[in-house]
Specification:
single chain, alpha/beta, FAD/NAD(P)-binding domain, 5-stranded parallel sheet, about 25% helix, binds flavin-adenine dinucleotide, binds NADP nicotinamide-adenine-dinucleotide phosphate
């Protein structure tokens, strides 16, 4: 199985290292360019570093955002803060003993595939560049890191910042601020800025579904998952539309254009605060920007207004600066040609984890992808022979043409695809998978009551069962509530420092 290089120690990189170790890979090195783990969730005030904002809470709810084998503490709120999320990821890394495999302050500058099928990885650390050789590369560099800032005619005389470097509202105190976009970044920031700004406006170029965080008193994603399982497909969208109409009323009353299509067909904005702010006047909605003229911004439809600052909540670009054009020179406004959004069409030793945009939690699906990659790297799962045909089919299934939806997946359908791929490993799993416990034959249940498929898929009982390693590195299966108690006991009162040193 050889040496494996993991790039990035965000939630997806951590899941990758954990799965590789559990599949028996011993020589795993994870390079992380920052000084801590947790990726986006390691909030920093450093304007040069991308992170979540000081006000960020998850939009995917606690129950829907736990790794299958590592539930969040039961006393976490429905929508944990970034500090709680970072503590969760640090605890995950500590529990699965990932620390010894993570090299902080180490940026991967280049990965080159040699004629012998091995990778030369150039790593910059402590101002020095050195080369290491690996058999496989697992890319987990995140796709919410490189800002996309649209250009408009004219010149704006105020300041323009992107959501990726927005930290807190203080710099906008008393200013006239325009927030651009209707994604989750724009919505969070508009509400945050409106607390201190003299005036806050939201530029909306097209209608979008903005969904309250709660539905009948429960997190919207949890209710949606329930409806998605129970309601016949043709009833789902009308039921959601009817609920939304009853819950929030008419879009015109918020000054917003009505969205096209059905709810949750596109990546939704989950934010009750922005709807409230639009109704009580803390926030006003304008149309798309047409051009700048000094401090004046002209909007489509003829409206114009003066602003001191613009915050672009206009999304991100996908990029792999360490891979050559030959390896990953795709037009990233289109769906990348990767099977299950992770397997390269021609290079079996290269994997991408977390390169997807689900309506739901991202790292939970990334954990399944990581399991597939780990099984392939450890030789327990064969790469599909007809991978190019599968990629063509997957790319043709893209539902929404905008660049923002290039890597969108339907959470439930995509999870099913990943589980199907994992089941192909089932016969091999009659052998013990280190860390995943002893598994019975292909169809029988093991002593723990889980069938091989349950364990390999790791999904069938994810809400009730949890698998954790004990001190000997073996697997324990217990009830989620018992596990939550012990995790709570291990989490200190305050936040833990976001370093890998103490893992
Ligand atoms: C404000 C905000 C809120 C969000 N809320 C949610 C949510 O509620 N639920 C949800 O599912 N998703 C959410 N997301 C999406 C978010 O991207 C994921 O939560 C998650 O962070 C993705 O994990 P990742 O490991 O793929 O990427 P990241 O968290 O971006 O981590 C990537 C890591 O790779 C490192 N890295 C990058 N390049 C290199 C290199 N060349 N060498 C070494 N290291 C490198 C980076 O330093 C970073 O630590 C949110 C995103 C934002 C911006
Ligand atoms: N609290 C949270 O948990 C939280 C907070 C922030 C972000 N996130 C997550 O982080 C990820 C990124 O979110 P994001 O909001 O930063 O990006 P995003 O989802 O890509 O949204 C980008 C927004 O910018 C608009 N836009 C794009 N190009 C534009 C242009 N040229 N002119 C005007 N508007 C343009 C888009 O409009 P169109 O739809 O018209 O293209 C969209 O409204 C998502 O997964 C999101 O859920 C979560």
């Amino acid at each position: 199985m050889g040496r494996v290089c993991v790039i990035g120690a965000g939630p997806c990189g951590l899941a990758a290292v954990k799965n590789l170790l559990q599949a028996g890979c011993r020589d795993v090195v994870c390079y992380e360019e920052s000084g801590g783990i947790g990726g986006n969730w390691a909030f920093t005030d450093d304007p040069g570093r991308v992170s979540v904002h000081e006000c960020t809470h998850t939009i995917s709810s606690r129950r829907m955002s736990s790794f299958d084998d590592f539930p969040m503490p039961s006393d976490y709120p429905d929508f944990p803060s970034h500090g709680q999320m970072l503590a969760y990821f640090v605890d995950y890394a500590r529990t699965f003993r990932l620390g010894p495999h993570i090299r902080l302050n180490s940026r991967v500058a280049r990965c080159a595939l040699g004629g012998d099928g091995r990778w030369t990885v150039e790593v910059v650390a402590d101002g020095e560049t050195r080369q290491e050789t690996f058999d496989s590369v697992v890319v987990c560099n995140g796709h919410h890191r490189e800002a996309f800032v649209p250009d408009y005619p004219g010149t704006f005389s105020g300041t323009i910042v992107h959501s990726s470097t927005y930290k807190r509202p203080d710099p906008f105190h008393g200013q006239r601020v325009l927030v651009v976009g209707t994604g989750n970044s724009a919505a969070d920031i508009a509400v945050d800025v409106a607390r201190v700004a003299a005036k806050t406006a939201l530029s909306v170029r097209a209608g979008a579904y903005i969904v309250p965080r709660l539905m009948f008193g429960r997190p919207t994603d949890a209710v949606y998952a329930l409806w998605r399982n129970r309601l016949p497909r043709p009833l789902l969208q009308p039921a959601l539309k009817a609920w939304l109409r009853l819950a929030i009323g008419r879009w015109e009353d918020y000054g917003l254009p009505a969205p096209a299509g059905a709810p949750l067909e596109q990546h939704p904005t989950v934010n009750s605060g922005v709807l409230d702010a639009l109704r009580d006047g803390r926030l006003v909605a304008y149309r798309g920007i047409e051009r700048y003229d000094g401090h004046v911004v002209h909007f489509t439809g003829g409206r114009r207004d003066e602003f001191d600052a613009i915050v672009m909540g206009t999304g991100f670009r996908i990029s792999f600066p360490f891979l050559s054009e030959r390896v990953a020179g795709w037009d990233l406004n289109r769906t990348p040609p990767l099977y299950l959004k992770m397997m390269h069409p021609t290079i079996p030793s290269l994997f991408f984890i977390g390169l997807l945009q689900p309506i739901g939690c991202l790292w939970r699906l990334a954990d399944y992808q990581a399991r597939i990659a780990a099984l392939q790297i450890s030789g327990r799962l064969r790469r599909p022979a007809d991978i190019e045909a599968r990629i063509r089919r997957e790319v043709s299934l893209r539902r929404h043409p905008s660049p923002r939806h290039a890597i969108a997946v339907d959470y439930r359908a995509f999870r099913r695809e990943l589980v199907r791929e994992l089941r192909a490993a089932q016969p091999h799993c009659a052998v013990r998978l280190p860390g995943w416990g002893r598994v019975a034959g292909p169809s029988g249940a093991g002593p723990d009551g889980l069938s091989a498929a349950d364990v390999v898929a790791g999904s069938a009982r994810d809400d009730r069962l949890t698998r954790r390693t004990d001190s000997s590195g073996d697997l324990r299966i217990g009830s989620a509530s018992a596990a939550s108690k012990s995790i709570r006991a291990r989490l200190p009162e305050g936040r833990r420092p976001p370093t890998a040193g103490g893992l």
